Amino acid sequence: METRHVGPARGRPRDPDLLPQLPGRSKHRSEHPQWWLRAAELLSGAAAEVMALAVPVECVCCGKEDRAICSGCERKVRLLTRDPFRAESTAPALVDTDGSVILPVVAAGIYREELAQSVLAFKRHGQGPLTGVLAKALGRAILAAAGGTGNIWLVPVPSSGRAYRKRGFSQVHLLLKYLRFNNGLEGLNCQDVLRKTKVPTVAAGMPGDQKGLGGQKGLGRGDRARRVRGSMRAVRGPGRGGLAGRPCIIVDDVLTTGSTLAEAARALHEAGGVVRGAVVLAATRPPDAGPISAMLGGPQAPGDIEKNKGRKDE
Asked: Considering only the top CATH level, what class is 78-312?
């Protein structure tokens, strides 16, 4: 009996796994489509391995040698920042007394475990390998907050002069610079329009302060609010009209009480900006159940930022 081969039905797509592979050059597995970015990635990896021989390093999370963050801990950071969430309900300065939201905030992850260790090490030393890991996490949160809406300015919160002189860099600006270089912002513009101003009468004499120049670590809710009030101003910005009427998203590293974000929003509002919300790399408390999609529902009124400040400090 003659055996006939029965092929797939005409018009039905064939399983691609059963098709023979066409000969061709294998591609380098990388997130960068341009060859020169892939080459730069390879060169930076090779340079990191050479530096590990000359200057021994260890993982900031688990202590494993030869890498500032090992592959296992890097994966854990990605898992901790995989799902950005709404986090403003845990910040007293961003929620009104009746429970209404003053400023919506999207966080990339909870400030704990490997994420907390990476953020702290990056703020202290600014290790290059940590920049990419944390910047990608921040980028996911920014895109989730923007929701595909264009024509938005990303406004980083500036570091204090003392912190900048001590570290030699601003961590938020470094992360945004990495995202811009690697096309991680999908057309969103970064505009550095916030400036720090000196408020010596407010800063001096607070708990944990040294000569009126200390940071906010160890300060309570009221002390943080008093320290940052009036500490920022906004400049006009580039382009015709500048900041006036421009929708903005504030970007910071860690959310605690929300006083810094509230002060940044106040400065932008006074300069005519329309603050849609804020994005942070990590929030210090568990997430809220609020949807991210509701963040860009409308501008926050300038009075919402100011009306409850006095009562929150009492």
From this structure: alpha beta
